[in-house]
């Protein structure tokens, strides 16, 4: 393997760390590598051209009091493919917070499970305010730039998608919103647009916007909510953006005392805002549905029948968004119950909104617990047939395998990585000149805790259960992470 160390970072984490989300599959790294000629089983497909990017929560310092895995510093892992040759890089996102904490030698902002008042610094980012913008949640490629983002809203950090060179924060010619941008910006390859939202604790509580392929903010409107909410993801169709108001949100009375505690309101509906993609606030149409919390949407599209015009939205319905814990449960059990997709009973689900009548219809797509659905992104916002999700690890925010779902037949194909091997969000890379929606490859990173190594796995998207057609070894075992994307445009 041709491995070059790009940079070493100073970690102040304890050598005998026993935190469940800083050990095992979540063990963070402090070294950045560029690797070529990696040991490979099988053959890198000649027609796989582009880059697989994955963001990772990768902490360098202990938290002030208690670490939540969403607090870790953003690290991007990239496997680029060109003409049968693969190259790997991992780089920290050069956030302002990373630099300040490196200088200070430790955490300067409180994390998700800590009170903001505990932080040494009084500035910060995030809808909650006084957090570090770790830029560790999501990554997309838009207009030739990789953009990493943070679930609590923050900057969009720009990187070269192939080399991961730091290209600074997005400014959108000075129009970047002061409230920041949430993770789960959406790229519409067909329109060349980036759609985004943000949320905050002050009215109107949410905004929605559109950026063109020249990185210009061309649309930005308030989406008025009844109070502070915690939206995590959005969806879009060819003509509409879909925002959500789920009844799991910070207790507004506690916010005034500086406490950010989520509360589930099963008596309230889930509300959906359907707005024309360049629509004004008065054009927002609200639809109500059964109470739930949705972490991630899969896709959405428009259709019509004799009953009128419909917007179809697929995502993962949580049947128990706020799992109960025993009264004597320890802090970790309380804190991490929101990371157990089985406890939250997260399953594929379809909502249908009739734009003609205002009616909502909804129901399950599958009885299997799963999440993190990915599609062939050229079908985003369009009627589609296939999505690819993960098999969660019971009781833990890790993934044991991948599932290919066929919406036309209802059939699934599953591949499990094996005992002690954990994967990540699995992207679909269409073959050039693909002849069908599923003509392409699935790509993921796995970490084998037993063998202490990581690989990049490539599957034929039409033969998931047959296992990977190619395995590429990485220089060092990488941490579990969350969101990923594929870009052929590099
Ligand atoms: Fe997410």
Could you characterize what this model shows?
- There is one protein chain.
- This protein is mainly β.
- It is 4% helix and 41% strand.
- It is built from 3 helices and 34 strands.
- It has helices spanning 96-104, 252-255, 331-336; strands at residues 2-8, 31-36, 40-42, 50-57, 74-82, 85-92, 138-142, 145-149, 157-159, 166-169, 186-188, 193-199, 206-211, 217-222, 235-236, 240-245, 248-250, 262-264, 270-276, 285-289, 297-305, 308-318, 346-354, 360-364, 371-374, 386-393, 396-406, 412-416, 421-422, 427-430, 440-448, 453-460, 470-473, 484-487.
- The strands form 8 sheets. A 6-stranded antiparallel β-sheet has the order 1-2-6-5-4-34, with no helix packed on it.
- Strand 26 and strand 27 form a beta hairpin.
- The mean pLDDT is 97.
- The site of fe (ii) ion has 9 residues, from loops.
Short description:
With 490 residues, the chain is mainly β.
SSE topology sketch:
Elements lengths: L1 E7 L22 E6 L3 E3 L7 E8 L16 E9 L2 E8 L3 H9 L33 E5 L2 E5 L7 E3 L6 E4 L16 E3 L4 E7 L6 E6 L5 E6 L12 E2 L3 E6 L2 E3 L1 H4 L6 E3 L5 E7 L8 E5 L7 E9 L2 E11 L12 H6 L9 E9 L5 E5 L6 E4 L11 E8 L2 E11 L5 E5 L4 E2 L4 E4 L9 E9 L4 E8 L9 E4 L10 E4 L3
Antiparallel strand pairs: 1-2, 2-6, 3-33, 4-5, 4-34, 5-6, 7-8, 8-9, 9-10, 11-12, 12-13, 13-14, 15-16, 16-19, 17-18, 19-20, 21-22, 22-23, 23-24, 25-26, 26-27, 27-28, 29-31, 30-31, 31-32, 32-33
Bound molecules: fe (ii) ion.
Fe (ii) ion binds next to loops.
List keywords for this structure.
34 strands, 3 helices, 41% strand, 490 residues, binds fe (ii) ion, 4% helix, six-stranded antiparallel sheet, mainly beta
């Amino acid at each position: 393997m041709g491995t070059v160390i790009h940079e070493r970072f100073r970690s102040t984490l304890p050598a005998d760390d026993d935190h469940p989300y800083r050990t095992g599959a979540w063990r963070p790294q402090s070294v950045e590598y560029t690797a070529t000629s990696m040991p490979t089983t099988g053959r890198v497909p000649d027609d796989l051209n582009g880059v697989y990017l994955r963001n990772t929560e990768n902490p360098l310092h202990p938290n002030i009091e208690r670490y939540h895995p969403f607090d870790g510093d953003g690290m991007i892992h990239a496997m680029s493919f060109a003409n049968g040759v693969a190259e790997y890089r991992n780089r920290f996102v050069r956030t302002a917070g990373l630099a300040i904490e490196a200088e200070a030698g430790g955490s300067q902002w409180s994390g998700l499970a800590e009170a903001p008042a505990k932080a040494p610094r009084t500035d910060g980012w995030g809808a909650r305010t006084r957090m570090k913008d770790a830029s560790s949640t999501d990554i997309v490629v838009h207009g030739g730039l990789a953009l990493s983002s943070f679930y609590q809203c923050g900057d969009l950090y720009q990187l070269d998608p192939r080399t991961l060179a730091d290209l600074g924060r997005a400014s959108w010619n000075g129009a970047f919103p002061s409230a920041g941008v949430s993770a789960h910006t959406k790229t519409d390859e067909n329109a060349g647009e980036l759609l985004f939202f943000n949320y905050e604790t002050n009215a109107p509580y949410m905004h929605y916007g559109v950026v063109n392929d020249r990185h210009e903010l061309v649309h930005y409107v308030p989406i008025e909510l009844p109070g502070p909410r915690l939206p995590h993801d959005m969806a879009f169709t060819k003509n509409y953006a879909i925002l959500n108001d789920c009844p799991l949100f910070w207790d507004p009375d506690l916010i005034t005392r500086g406490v950010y505690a989520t509360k589930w309101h099963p008596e309230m509906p889930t509300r959906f805002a359907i707005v024309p993609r360049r629509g004004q606030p008065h054009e927002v149409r609200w639809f109500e549905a059964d109470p739930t919390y949705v972490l991630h949407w899969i896709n959405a599209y428009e259709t019509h029948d004799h009953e009128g015009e419909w917007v179809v939205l697929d995502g993962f319905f949580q049947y128990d968004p706020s799992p109960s814990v025993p009264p004597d449960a320890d802090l970790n059990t309380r804190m991490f119950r929101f990371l157990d997709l089985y406890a939250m009973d997260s399953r594929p689900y379809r909502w249908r909104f009739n734009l003609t009548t205002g009616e909502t219809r909804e129901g399950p797509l599958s009885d299997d617990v799963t999440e993190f659905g990915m599609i062939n992104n050229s079908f985003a916002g369009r009627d589609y047939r296939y999505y690819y999700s993960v098999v969660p690890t019971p009781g833990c925010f890790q993934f044991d395998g991948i599932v290919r779902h066929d919406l036309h037949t209802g059939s699934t194909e599953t591949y499990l990585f094996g005992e002690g091997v954990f994967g990540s969000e699995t992207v679909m890379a269409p073959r050039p000149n693909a002849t069908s929606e599923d003509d392409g490859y699935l790509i993921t990173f796995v970490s084998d805790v037993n063998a202490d190594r990581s690989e990049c796995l490539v599957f034929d998207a039409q033969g998931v259960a047959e296992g990977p057609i190619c395995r590429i070894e990485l220089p060092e075992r990488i941490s579990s992470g969350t969101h990923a994307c594929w870009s052929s445009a590099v």
